[in-house]
Structures are given as structure tokens and as C-alpha cells.
Amino acid sequence: MVELSPFAHRVQLISGLVAALIVLAILLITPGINEKKLNTLEKIQQRGYINFLTLNSATTYYQDIDGPNGFEYHLANWFAESIGVQARFVTVPAFSDLYPELLFGSGDIAAAGLSENESEFSRSVIYGPRYYEVANQVLYRKFRSDRPKKVWNLADGSLKVISGTAQVKLLQELVKTYPNLTWIEVDDIAPEELIEQVDSGEVDFILADSHEIALQRRYFPELRIAFELGEKRQLRWAYNYSEEDSLTIAIDAFFEQIKTDGRLEQLVHRHYSHVEKFNYSDIRTFTQRIESHLPRYEALFRREADNVGLDWRLLASIGYQESLWVARAKSPTGVRGLMMLTLDTAKQMKVKNRLDPAESIRGGAKYIARVLKRVPEQIKEPDRTWFALAAYNVGFGHVEDARIITKERGGDPNRWIDVKQSLPLLARKKWYKKTKYGYARGWEPVKYVENIRQYYAYLIGFETKAIREKGEPKPLPEIAPLAPSM
Question: Do 223 and 319 fall within a single domain?
């Protein structure tokens, strides 16, 4: 054994310490030695959430009366659940912003009705499996002198499309064959607003996706589909390239699973299938139903309306608007019964069987009475009732957003005649991007309220006529209907 001097001993200790530090540094900076390198999916799972880029619109993601809704919203939540994380939604201002935000922003997946080869960025991303098929449709208003039948007919009027969409690329190809074809590209606008512009006559034609048109035509019965252009497109999610395919494998497996277990088919059916065109102004049908259906339920309407302090004719008008007084009515969106209650509303109102007319009417009466109590006290009748009906249809939060917009535009937020002008603005990005609850089909509650007012006034007149014919005193309505022109 060799005895080291104190100096040599210190040198030996220092050398050993340096060597240990070098080994430790190598372990820390060398991938795969100290710990496994996380793939894309594992990184998402580690942080606990996944970012979905989407649009605030009827076919993607929006705030409904019962909370967030939309085809892409439900699809994204299912996928997030399948990989054990939460879904976070980032709404981009315009369709043309989706791909740049995906490539250079913080989004993991773009879920907004995309399809392959629709954009200059398409080659820079990966597309998942197809989940829905759509067509490019030309929409017009039936009061035009001639129905457009071919592409060259579109040169006879104004044509609008949304920037960055597959429709723009299609038109760019068509103009090579039809040099007289012109169009206007708009950016800060939703498909719903384009459709509204056709109905108002602001534009002659639009080119949009068939599922977007199908959802909105119900509310604009004068609109017609002229023809379809190009090939049908397959909607897919888009995401970024990676050195490995962990996210691709997870997405492929997810879509295969929901196709196999039937969930995808159910989701498509809920949002897009059997979208019926309904003529709200058919007063002859209403008259027939007063005679054939109303007698079965009039006593129930009277009893439940009396229990909550409503005019029974108002309650009956709501029931007609909701279901045409069909006790077992069902909707693809999940609402049921004569008053078409959602499952959440039925639970709140302690309705066990939504298809039972007595329970449904009781639940609807209690719910509208609850909504009425939430209307600010400074709003007086009959406006108070119209505000409540709008909230019953679209949700109280969206009505409050419309009141704020009304005040900003110089109107009176406590008058229905002013607020009904602002509600449709909730479908316009210029306005809804500034609101608390975001996008809403704002024209729908306006039509809803006006329809019910019409039915209500007609029921009062119908009952008054019947009483007069019997020689009895004319009853006074508890809530006097406003003039139709207001």
C-alpha cells in the first residue's frame, strides 16, 4: 500500500469529483440515457389538455342555451377523453387564419370543417380520417326572375364566398373556363351571415358548404339551392407533421372506434340529418290544429299556466311553436315532447317523462316562469315577456349580450323593438367576438318571438270570436299582444 501525501490526496479527490460531474452532465444532456424522450401524444398527455383550433359558428363550436355545442365541439371532446386529457378550444377570427395559426401558433389540431387540397397550406399539414361529406352549393332567393342553372348564370348577379375556403379555390379553377365569372371574397364573416345576406337581397348568390346551408335554410324559407359545383369534399381534422406518428395513430384509432360503435353516425344525425323546412307562417295549419289538437291539451295549458301565473294562450302558443302540439315529438338535437324540453331542462323542472304531455307542459310552464323572473325589473310588459321568450329559445346570456350591443348602438336595451335589431348581430363576427357568450343564431330568437306573438294574438282572437258567438263577455288577456308591425 502506497501512502499518498496530503497534496496528492487532494488532487485525487478533485479529479474524482470532476469525473463525476462530467458523467452527470453527460447523463443530463444525452437523450435516452437519463429518461425517455416524450413523443407528441405523450407531451399532450403530460400537460393534461389538447388545443383545438376552430371557428365560432353553427357547424363547429358555439354557445347554446345549455352551454357549449356544435359538431366539432362534441367530436373534439370525445377525442380528448379517449387520450385522457381535456379539450381546450381556441376560436380564430376567420377561416383564412386556421392554417397559419396551426402551423405557427399553439394549436394541436384544427377542427373546423377542413378538407384536403383546399388551401395553399394543405401540403404543410397532415389530415386525419374523413368524418363527413359535403358539397359546394349555390344558394339564391326564389324571387329572382330566373333560377340559375349553370355556372355562366352566376355572372348575371353578385356572388360572395368566404376567403381561404375550398369554394375560392374552386372558383379560381372555374374562371379559366368561364372568364366572365366574378365573385367577392369576404373574410370577417360567418357562413350564417352570408346566408342571411341572400335572404335580405344584399347579395344574389353565395357558394358554401351544403351542411352550413342545410342548418340555416329552415329559418329562411324563401331560399333555394340552385345547383352544386365541383366534387364532394370529405371533412377532416388537420395537424402538424412530426418526426413520429403517435398523434396520427391516436386520431386514426379514435375515428375507427366512433365509426364502429356508432357514435359518429349518431352525431351526424343529431346535427345534420332530417333538417326540415318548416313554414312558420302557415296560419291555415295553425287553425286546423286549434280544432284537431288543442282540445286534447287545453285543460293542461290552462291549469299549468294558472299555477305559474301565465296566460294559458301564451303557454299554448309556445307549445305550438315547439312541437305543433305533438305530444311525442322528437328532434335530432335531443329535445323531446310537446314543449320540446332538453334533457337538462327536464331534470331541472323534475320532469321524469318528457313524452308525457302533462309533465311536458308543467315543465315548460315552470321553466318559462323561471326565465321571466330573471328578466331585469326595469323591463316592463309586454316587452318583459318577449325578452323571456327570446331567452327561452337562445339562452339568457345571449340576450344580455344583445342588450349590451343595443346600448352600444344607441338603442334602448329595455325595449324589444330595439333589442330585436341587435340579436341577429350575434351571428356576425364584428359583434359576437366582443361579447361574453360569443356566437349565436341571433335571428332565430327574433323569428321565434314573432311567431309566438302571432300565434298568441291569433288564439286570443279565435277565443274571443268563439265567446262572442256564445253571447258571453269578451275576456281581457293578461298580456296584450303588440301590433305585428312592431
Answer: no
Sign of CA dihedral 226, 231, 234, 238: negative
Give the residue numbers marked as catalytic.
322
Residue, of 16 and 240, whose pLDDT is higher: 240
pLDDT tens digits for 322-344? 999 999 988 766 789 999 998 98
pLDDT value at 276 more than 60: no
Residues 428, 433, 435, 436, Cα dihedral to 10°: 130
What's the rounded Cα separation, in Å, for the pair 470 and 14? 114
Residue 44 corresponds to which cell in the numbers above? 399532450
Confidence class for position 450, pLDDT limits 50, 70, 90:
confident
Residues 312 and 166 in one domain: no
Residue 232 structural domain: 132-238
Choosing from 204, 238, 272, the residue where a domain stops is 238
